[in-house]
Design brief:
This protein is an alpha+beta fold. It folds into two domains: 14-341, BirA Bifunctional Protein, domain 2 (2-Layer Sandwich); 346-443, Anticodon-binding domain (Rossmann fold, 3-Layer(aba) Sandwich), CATH 3.40.50.800. It has 19 helices and 16 strands. The protein has helices at 14-33, 47-50, 55-60, 71-74, 86-96, 139-156, 168-178, 185-193, 195-209, 214-225, 232-242, 245-261, 310-313, 326-336, 341-344, 360-372, 391-402, 412-417, 438-443; strands at 37-38, 44-46, 64-66, 77-81, 104-113, 125-134, 162-167, 270-272, 286-291, 300-304, 319-325, 350-352, 377-379, 406-409, 419-424, 430-434. The strands form three sheets. It has an eight-stranded mixed sheet with strand order 1-5-6-11-10-9-7-8. It is elongated. The structure holds one RNA strand of 75 nucleotides.
Length: 444
RNA sequence: GUGAGUGUAGCUCAGGGGUAGAGCGCCGGACUGUGGCUCCGGUGGUCGCGGGUUCAAAUCCCGUCACUCACCCCA
């Protein structure tokens, strides 16, 4: 019998859970500072809600659930595990628009599922930490989203990270300018997105395979090869003159984002990447990705999706958001040993030793006293067979292995004097303390 | 969906044709009313699973499953 979890899924032991809760706590705190409100949605959505939102590749990775009854035989599915948090949000907006504020800002930290093949930093069940702002087309939204994301990484102790931005409209304009037919925009975007991995020559080769003429590859290569200079504003002006109206809109949005971010935490980490494309098909405007050097994939990504909610409600509601990948953040933080010491250990503040097998109630009531005073107290469940004999072999070893900092003994001497002996497990120093002053002593 | 690598004790791994080894852990003991250090003793595995070659397979071959990594795509 295989006792491991299902492929791509993981069990989280206490130490893991503590780390996860720590990171989630930091993220939620930052998001709340920006006025985002919490939202939760079901793990399961109707299949039709999800299909057609993520692009061809994305749709393939949806975990489908067989229809009850006949589904077992026909293989027909009508439900699916949620694939991301953005599409369920769009559904919620379409459903509750009237009840929600004009500008709705929500954060959501929940697991999503993808029928992917696992590898480093990639799982079939993983948490996303999303922030989205609904109802405004202003680039202030983007600036705040990026600033919040930057604050999260700074609060977690990251110093070197990049917030990479680009714009779907700019990409479309560049593709048009290069002569890529509208039908091949998607394929060309995917190839451009890989530019950092396969290099400029690889891009040219793959474009040729798609049947795009040599001139296209040449133009795109030139676009890609031209890294934006430090003077972004001048560069953008120069670019804009060569592009159509759509491209100019993209440039203008990016210009605003860059300018607005200078007043936020995101500013120093912002970078333009003209080849950033992102796979999800629902993006319509600015797109972003958060990267660090030691991980191939991104730690987070997002963008503006002004038409997605309209796919549910009919009328378009502008929206933009960003999603942080909890698992990848944890992978990197684990490798770099970035967790505060307190997060990793101390399941209890103090352990009470059972010295006399026939005085368990004494130890229980003592533990109760300490707990009522606010301490986390563990009582060792087994008493020694003979009073006082071999007490420590098991009990002290257990406390030591669990990293419990203090152990309290009430043995014969202590009972006679009305004291307890407190042992500091780190230093090995033992102190006799009047029983009534134990809490005071431990807290000092 | 494609490709590569790895499956041997609870864990990390060695052994590359003659029926298994280390370190750590775990259990017991010495020393302390009592852990970490030291010392002594002990526990430990049909070598992922199935088949084949061979007098003989953990070892070679085929298949299968699992895990890991990379590609694709993504967080």
């Amino acid at each position: 019998m295989n006792t491991g979890p299902a492929r791509g899924m993981r069990d989280f032991l206490p130490e893991d859970v503590r780390r996860r809760q720590y990171v989630i706590g930091v993220i939620a705190d930052v998001y709340q500072k920006y006025g985002f409100e919490p939202l939760e949605t079901p793990a399961v959505e109707n299949l039709e809600t999800l299909q057609g939102k993520y692009g061809e590749e994305g749709d393939r990775l949806i975990f489908k659930i067989l229809k009850r009854g006949e589904g077992a035989e026909t293989g027909q599915a009508d439900l699916a595990l949620r694939y991301d948090l953005t599409v369920p949000l769009a559904r919620v907006i379409a459903e509750y628009r009237a009840k929600l504020p004009k500008f709705f800002k929500r954060y959501q930290v929940q697991p999503v599922w993808r029928a992917d093949r696992p590898q480093k930093g990639r799982f079939r069940e993983f948490y996303q930490c999303d922030v989205d702002a609904i109802g405004s087309t202003s680039m202030v939204v983007e600036a705040e989203l990026l600033s919040a994301a930057a604050d999260v990484f700074l609060a977690l102790g990251f110093k070197e990270f990049q917030i990479v931005v680009n714009h779907r409209k700019l990409l479309n304009a560049v593709l048009d300018h290069a002569g890529v037919p509208a039908g091949l925009h998607g394929a060309a975007l995917v190839i451009m997105d890989k530019a950092d991995k396969i290099g400029v020559d690889g891009v040219r080769k793959e474009l040729a395979e798609k049947g795009l003429p040599e001139g296209v590859a040449k133009t795109l290569r030139e676009e890609l090869a031209s890294a934006p200079p430090p003077d972004l504003s001048a560069w953008m002006n120069q670019q804009a003159s060569a592009l159509n109206d759509e491209g100019k809109e993209g440039i203008e949005d990016l210009r605003q984002i860059v300018a607005l971010c200078q007043s936020t935490s995101a500013g120093p980490h912002l970078a333009l990447d003209r080849s950033l494309a992102r796979g999800l098909s629902y993006y319509t405007g600015p797109i972003f990705e958060i990267r660090v050097a030691d991980l191939a994939g991104s730690l987070g990504g997002g963008g503006r999706y002004d038409n997605l909610i309209g796919m549910f409600s009919g009328d378009n509601v502008p929206a933009s958001g960003i999603s942080l990948g909890l698992e990848r953040i944890l992978v990197v933080m684990g490798e770099r040993d970035m967790f505060p010491a307190a997060v990793v250990s101390t399941p209890a503040d103090v352990m009470v030793v059972q010295w006399f097998a026939n005085r368990t109630n004494l130890y229980l009531s003592f533990a109760t006293e300490l707990r009522q005073a606010g301490l986390r107290v563990e009582l060792y469940p087994d008493a020694p067979i003979e009073d006082g004999k071999k007490v420590g072999d098991k009990q002290f070893k257990y406390a030591s292995a669990r990293g419990i900092p203090f152990v309290v003994v009430i043995g014969a001497d202590e009972l006679a004097k009305g004291t307890v002996t407190v042992k500091n497990m780190k230093t090995g120093v033992q102190t006799a303390v009047p029983r009534a002053e134990t809490v005071k002593w431990l807290n000092s």
